[in-house]
Design a protein that fits this description.
The protein is of the alpha/beta class. It has helices spanning 17-22, 29-32, 36-39, 54-62, 66-76, 99-111, 130-138, 157-170, 186-199, 215-224, 246-253, 264-284, 297-301, 305-317, 324-337, 347-360, 370-376, 389-399, 417-424, 433-439, 441-456, 461-468, and strands at 9-12, 46-51, 82-86, 116-120, 142-148, 174-179, 204-208, 229-232. The N and C termini lie far apart (48 Å). The chain binds cobalt (II) ion.
Length: 472
Amino acid sequence: MSDVKKPVKITETVLRDAHQSLIATRMTTEQMLPIIDKMDKVGYHSVECWGGATFDSCLRFLKEDPWERLRKLRDGFKNTKLQMLFRGQNILGYSPYSDDVVEYFVQKSIANGIDIIRIFDCLNDIRNLEAAVKAANKEKGHAQVALSYTLGEAYTMDYWKNIAKNIEEMGADSICIKDMAGLLVPNAATELVQALKAGTKLPIQLHTHYTSGVASMTYMKAVEAGCDIIDTAMSPLAMGTSQPATEVMAKAFEGTDYDPGFDQNLLAEIADYFRPLREEWLESGLLSPKVMGVNIKTLLYQVPGGMLSNMVSQLKEMKAEDKYNEVLEEIPRVRKDFGEIPLVTPSSQIVGTQAVLNVVMGERYKTLTKESKDLLVGKYGKTTLPVNEEIQKKALDSLGMKEPITYRPADDLEPSLERFEKEMAQYKQQDEDVLSYALFPQVATEFFKYRDAQKTGVDTTLADSASKTYPV
Ligand code: CO
């Protein structure tokens, strides 16, 4: 062992990705608050607790104001950095927004307590990251850019090194390898981390999921190769489609140069808090044993866990559950036709839905969804490889376009904040409300109405029904 200690830093995901991956993002603020005092004493590099699907879930299912949640977490975490996940130009939604909305969202996230913004683009088109990164720089937040990790002929070490270099030049403060499907195997992690370390001076963080069963070994190899920070979740909400367990990773590095120096007794107390909640979620069916084991199909089909469960529910709705395996095989073909793009929100939904349609309709691309058309004509950005020209032609024709877009898609979007302000003025109680509305107009309006009714004490039925039904 060398003399140079290099403790691995740890980002705790139990308040965001862990419950998003295992229980459809249904952890409430009330369930979080009692334990954050203890979590604040662990010495985490950061706690990921906001963004991703939590924003949508707060408004839609939990009838909570996501901004209020953030402020409460900020109040409780006095010594720990708070981190959020941000979908580049798509913010926390599913399609691109104008720059003024992106900038205002970043500004308000930081003003309400976020320290680190992890920004990614589902196509790894770095033009889609620029507005958010610049806004985070301006607000003195930490801008972390995440590479959406995937496999395929286009994804060589040079591809990753190039992107990393561009991200550094763009003004990012750190780089994350975002392995949403758990595809990064241990030896590949060594190679990738070494390549990125050689290509950039920025700190490297690794985010993976346990889905395929290799994640903790991948972390071990990555850290030994120089990875600075890893993402883990407290054991009651770890593994399966979530992250490796915090206690286990901390223990695995104990006594080595990478020892994070965590107090295992304190971690055990925190786990004791979450364990009864886990039992409740298991009992209610919100936590399904299906997401807890090893799913080796994720390596075979390179499909993220969340995408599989979406696909199952789509097939159920169409009464076509027997087509599961056909769709599973169709996904890589659609992905190829769509330029071999990474599969992560929202590209995962676009490819998944199109694959379902292709199989259920009995003819490939008989119907193209609006999102598929937009993707094929460049409205989400540049795909990794060129898309299938024949299908692209079909999309162009149906949209009345002559040529695909080759410039940054958001350059087409007029500033829209003012319009949103006007549309929701009657519900406004805080500046941030316009952003909730901009991202989810219908859902936010319903929430605003519910909030108003709560104030006058009229109607509480929404909250009751939301807590009992768990649509995925
Ligand atoms: Co994740």
